[in-house]
Backbone:
C-alpha cells in the first residue's frame, strides 16, 4: 500500500485464561480479540464498531499495552511497541492518548480540572508550574471552555463539558494519536454532536490520527474515514466508511445497519432481524463465527427449502450437535407424557413435512432418534446430511473492491456462486 | 367505557432538595388510548422518567411530591388513591419495565421463581400452576427452551434475555398499560430490534397501551403512535408520530431532529445546555438555546400549547385560527391567552378544546403559533418538503384521537 500508516496492527490477540479452583488450573480461554489486523493512516480517523462483547474495547486497550496482548504486533510509526521496555513505553504513551466513555469516572473528584489536565504534563516531565498553568489555560480555551475553568472541580461541569476537558487532557502532551473509546455514548444526542464536532476540529487543527471505538453506527458514519466491523473477536468487514455503510458486503454488517431504528416512522419494521445472542467467546462457533445467526448462511447443495427453513434446520442441527437439545423438557412444557418428534419440529418452526423429500426423510429419522433420547446421534446424523461450508471452515478475508474487504464465504466463487445475490452481496473479483 | 385509558392533566411533580425545590415535572398533560403507544421523548433531565414514575407513585416520597394535577386511569383518579390500592394496581393493571434488567431482577433467585412470585401476588393460583404460567410467559417472550431456562439464575442469561424475562414479569398480570422506561437503551442494536418487535407483537396480542419513555428518536419512529416531547419539565410539543417527524412544530423538536446522525446536517448541535432545574428561565424554557427567540419569548410563563397548522392545510376544516399556516396575514399581536391554553387553565374544558381544534391534535408550546406571530419563522422547510404525503396511515392513532376527545 502506498500510504505510510501511523499505526499498523497485525494479528493482535488477547486471550484471557479461565481458571478454576485454588491452584488456578486453566480450564478454558476467552478469545476476546482473536487475530485482528488494521491500520490507521496519519491524520486519519478510523472506526471500530461492533456489539458489546465483540472485543472492540479489549482490542483498544491491548493495542496501547494498557493490557498485555497475548499475540500479534502493533507498529507505531515504524516501531514495534510490543517489544518496548517500560521506559520506551512511557515515551510512547506521550504520543498516544486515550479518551474514555464515562467522563464522570475519568476525573478525580478531588482534583481541580486544571490539575487533572496538567497531570500528564507533570508525569512527562514538565516541572514548571507556571508553564503548566499556561498550557492548561490555552488548552481549555481551545476546547471551548474558559481559562478560569481550571480552578473548578469536575462536579461543576456537565457531561459534555467534562468530555471537553477529557479532550483537553488528551491533547496536553501533544500526541500523534488519540484512541477514543465510546467518547459520546454517555452523552445526550444534542451534546453528542457538539463533542463530535470538537473532535473533528481538534483533528484538523493538530493533524492527529484517531481510532474511534463505538457501538453506534451513526456516530462512526459521521466522523470516520474508514471503518472496521468486529464480531466475536474478529474483523468481518473493513473499508471506507461510505462504502461499508452504503454497500455492506458482510451479512453481519448488513444486519447491524438495518437494526438501527431510522428516524422515519414510514420506514418502520424494515430491518433484518438477527435471531439469538452473540455466542460465548470462550467457545466460539466453528467455521465462520457468525454462521449461528447469519440469515444468509449457505445451504447444502441441492437442498430445496426456503432460506428461513434452512436457517431453522441449521439451528436444530447446531443445537443437537452441541448436545444442547432436551426433548424431555419440551414434552414437560407441552404437558405431553413423552417427547415426540412433532414437538421438536414445532419448537424450531420447521414445516411438516419439509418440501424437500430427501431432506424430510433425514430430518424425520433424526427427530425420531432425538425423541428416543439419543440427541448426540441425531446431531451427528444432521451434521452429515446437511453440510454447510459456513460451519466447516473459516472464511478468508477477501477484497471486494480496492480497499474494501470482507470475511465471508459468500465472496468465494467456489463455495457459493450465486447465493449472495439475494442479499446484495457480490462474489469477489479476482485480484 | 370510552375515552382514553390514561389521562394526565397538568401534572406537577417536585422534589425538595438542599438547593431548593426542583420542579421536575411542571404542568404536563397527555393521554393514552387503549392499545395505543405513546412515546415520551426528551433529553436526560427533561422530566420524562419522573412523569412516568409519577403515574403509579414510584417516585420516592419524600423528597418527591406530586404537587398538583390529575392522573385518571380508566376513570379512577390515581393522585389521591391510597397506597394499598396503588399497590394492587401496580403490576396488575399498570406494569413497568425499566432500563437495566440486571437491576430489576433479583440475582439470588431463579427467574422462574421471580415470575411465579409476581403471578401469585396478583392471582390466587397454586405454585405448580404459577410455574406453568411462568414457562408459558417465557416462551411467549421468545426465550428458547423456556422449560429449561425457567430454572436459570439471572447471571446465566444475556442482557437481551434478561430484558425478555422482565417483560414476561410485566405481562404476568395482563396489564392494560405497560410503562416502559428506556427498555432498550442498555441493549445492542440487534437485540434492541428484537425487543421492539416483541413489544409490538405483545401489544397486539394483549391489547395493551404502552407508554414508552426514550431519548432515542429512532426508537420513537419505530414504535410510537403519538409522541410527547418534553424539555425541562414541560411539554414542548405533542403530535401524531408522522406529524412530528414530517412537520415538527417546535424549534426544540426541530433541533433534536436536526442533530440526529444520518438526518439533516448531523453536525448541528443545540448550543448551550439544559437550564438549571431549581431556577428555570422565565418565558419559554427553551429560549436561551432557541435560534428564533424574540423578547416576547423571554418573559412570563411557558407559552401554552397552540395548534400547529398542517403545512398543506388540507386536512383542517375544523377551524385553525392561530398563525394560519404558510404566510397568514400578520394580524395585531394578541397578548391575552387564547382558548387553547391548557397549561394555565387546568380545567379539562380547555384541554378538550385543544384536542378538537386540530384534526391530528398536533400542538406546540411556542409563541410563534399564537395569533399575531408569523409561524413561518419557525417552519422547518426541509422537513415539510420531504414529508409530502398527508395520509395518516392506517394506524389506530387517528381513530383513538377522535374518540378520546368527546
Residues:
Amino acid at each position: 500500500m502506498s500510504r505510510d500508516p501511523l499505526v499498523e496492527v497485525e494479528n493482535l490477540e488477547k486471550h484471557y485464561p479461565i481458571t478454576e479452583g485454588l491452584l488456578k488450573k486453566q480450564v478454558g480461554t476467552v478469545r476476546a480479540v482473536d487475530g485482528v489486523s488494521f491500520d490507521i493512516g496519519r491524520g486519519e480517523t478510523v472506526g471500530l464498531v461492533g456489539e458489546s462483547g465483540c472485543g472492540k474495547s479489549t482490542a483498544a486497550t491491548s493495542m496501547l499495552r494498557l493490557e498485555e496482548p497475548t499475540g500479534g504486533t502493533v507498529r507505531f510509526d515504524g516501531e514495534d511497541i510490543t517489544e518496548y521496555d517500560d521506559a520506551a513505553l512511557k515515551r510512547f504513551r506521550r504520543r498516544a492518548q486515550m479518551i474514555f466513555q464515562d467522563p464522570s469516572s475519568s476525573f478525580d473528584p478531588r482534583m481541580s480540572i486544571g490539575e487533572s489536565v496538567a497531570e500528564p504534563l507533570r508525569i512527562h516531565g514538565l516541572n514548571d508550574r507556571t508553564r503548566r498553568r499556561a498550557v492548561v489555560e490555552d488548552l481549555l480555551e481551545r476546547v471551548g471552555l474558559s481559562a478560569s475553568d481550571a480552578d473548578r472541580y469536575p462536579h461543576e461541569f456537565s457531561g459534555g463539558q467534562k468530555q471537553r476537558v477529557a479532550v483537553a487532557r488528551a491533547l496536553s502532551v501533544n500526541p500523534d494519536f488519540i484512541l477514543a473509546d465510546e467518547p459520546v455514548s454517555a452523552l445526550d444526542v444534542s451534546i453528542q454532536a457538539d463533542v463530535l464536532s470538537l473532535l473533528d476540529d481538534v483533528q484538523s487543527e493538530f493533524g492527529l490520527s484517531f481510532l474511534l471505538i463505538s457501538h453506534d453506527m451513526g456516530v462512526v458514519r459521521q466522523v470516520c474515514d474508514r471503518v472496521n466491523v468486529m464480531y466475536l473477536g474478529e474483523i468481518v468487514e473493513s473499508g471506507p466508511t461510505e462504502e461499508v455503510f452504503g454497500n455492506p458486503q458482510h451479512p453481519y454488517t448488513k444486519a447491524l445497519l438495518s437494526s438501527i431504528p431510522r428516524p422515519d416512522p414510514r420506514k418502520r419494521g424494515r430491518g433484518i432481524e438477527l435471531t439469538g445472542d452473540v455466542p460465548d467467546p470462550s467457545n466460539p462457533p466453528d467455521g465462520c463465527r457468525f454462521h449461528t445467526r447469519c440469515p444468509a448462511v449457505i445451504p447444502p447443495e441441492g437442498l430445496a427449502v426456503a432460506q428461513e427453513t434452512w436457517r431453522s434446520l441449521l439451528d436444530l442441527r447446531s443445537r443437537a450437535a452441541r448436545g444442547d437439545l432436551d426433548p424431555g423438557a419440551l414434552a414437560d412444557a407441552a404437558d405431553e407424557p413423552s417427547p415426540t418428534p412433532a414437538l421438536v419440529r414445532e419448537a424450531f418452526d420447521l414445516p411438516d413435512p419439509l418440501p424437500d423429500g430427501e431432506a424430510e426423510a433425514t430430518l424425520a429419522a433424526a427427530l425420531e432418534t432425538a425423541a428416543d433420547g439419543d440427541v448426540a446421534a441425531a446431531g451427528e446424523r444432521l451434521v452429515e446430511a446437511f453440510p454447510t461450508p459456513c460451519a466447516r471452515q473459516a472464511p478468508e478475508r477477501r477484497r471486494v473492491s480496492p480497499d474494501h474487504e470482507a470475511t465471508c464465504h459468500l465472496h468465494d466463487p467456489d463455495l457459493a456462486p450465486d447465493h449472495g445475490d439475494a442479499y446484495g452481496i457480490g462474489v469477489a473479483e479476482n485480484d | 367505557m370510552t375515552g382514553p385509558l390514561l389521562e394526565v392533566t397538568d401534572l406537577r411533580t417536585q422534589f425538595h432538595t438542599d438547593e431548593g425545590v426542583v420542579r421536575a415535572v411542571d404542568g404536563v398533560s397527555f393521554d393514552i388510548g387503549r392499545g395505543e403507544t405513546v412515546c415520551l421523548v426528551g433529553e436526560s433531565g427533561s422530566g420524562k422518567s419522573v412523569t412516568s414514575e409519577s403515574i403509579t407513585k414510584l417516585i420516592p416520597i419524600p423528597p418527591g411530591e406530586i404537587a398538583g394535577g390529575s392522573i385518571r386511569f380508566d376513570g379512577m383518579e390515581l393522585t389521591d388513591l391510597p397506597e394499598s390500592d396503588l399497590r394492587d394496581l401496580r403490576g396488575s393493571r399498570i406494569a413497568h419495565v425499566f432500563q437495566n434488567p440486571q437491576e430489576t431482577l433479583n440475582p439470588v433467585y431463579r427467574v422462574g421463581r421471580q415470575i411465579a412470585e409476581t403471578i401469585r401476588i396478583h392471582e390466587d393460583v397454586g405454585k405448580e400452576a404459577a410455574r406453568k404460567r411462568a414457562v408459558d410467559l417465557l416462551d411467549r417472550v421468545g426465550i428458547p427452551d423456556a422449560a429449561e431456562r425457567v430454572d436459570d439464575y439471572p447471571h446465566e442469561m444475556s442482557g437481551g434475555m434478561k430484558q425478555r424475562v422482565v417483560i414476561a414479569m410485566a405481562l404476568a398480570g395482563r396489564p392494560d398499560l405497560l410503562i416502559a422506561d428506556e427498555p432498550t437503551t442498555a441493549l445492542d442494536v440487534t437485540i434492541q430490534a428484537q425487543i421492539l418487535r416483541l413489544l409490538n407483537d405483545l401489544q397486539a396480542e394483549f391489547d395493551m397501551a404502552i407508554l414508552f419513555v426514550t431519548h432515542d428518536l429512532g426508537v420513537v419512529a419505530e414504535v410510537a403512535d403519538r409522541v410527547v416531547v418534553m424539555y425541562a419539565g414541560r411539554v414542548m410539543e405533542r403530535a401524531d408520530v408522522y406529524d412530528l417527524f414530517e412537520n415538527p412544530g417546535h424549534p426544540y423538536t426541530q433541533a433534536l431532529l436536526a442533530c440526529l446522525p444520518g438526518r439533516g446536517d448531523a453536525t448541528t448541535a443545540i448550543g448551550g445546555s439544559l437550564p438549571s432545574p431549581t431556577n428555570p428561565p422565565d418565558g419559554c424554557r427553551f429560549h436561551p438555546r432557541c435560534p428564533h427567540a424574540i423578547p416576547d419569548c423571554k418573559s412570563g410563563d411557558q407559552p401554552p400549547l397552540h395548534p400547529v397548522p398542517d403545512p398543506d392545510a388540507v386536512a383542517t376544516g375544523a377551524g385553525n385560527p392561530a398563525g394560519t399556516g404558510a404566510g397568514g396575514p400578520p394580524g395585531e399581536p394578541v397578548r391575552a391567552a387564547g382558548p387553547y391554553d391548557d397549561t394555565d387553565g387546568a380545567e379539562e374544558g380547555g384541554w378538550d378544546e385543544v384536542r378538537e381544534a386540530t384534526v391530528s391534535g398536533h400542538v406546540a408550546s411556542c409563541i410563534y403559533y399564537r395569533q399575531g406571530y408569523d409561524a413561518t419563522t419557525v417552519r422547518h422547510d426541509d422537513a415539510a418538503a420531504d414529508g409530502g404525503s398527508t395520509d395518516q396511515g392506517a394506524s389506530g392513532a387517528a381513530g383513538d384521537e377522535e374518540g378520546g376527545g368527546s
Notes: Residues 70 and 80 of chain B are 9 Å apart (CA to CA). Confidence is low (pLDDT under 50) at residues 314-360, 382-406 of chain B. Chain B touches chain A through 53 residues (CB under 8 Å).
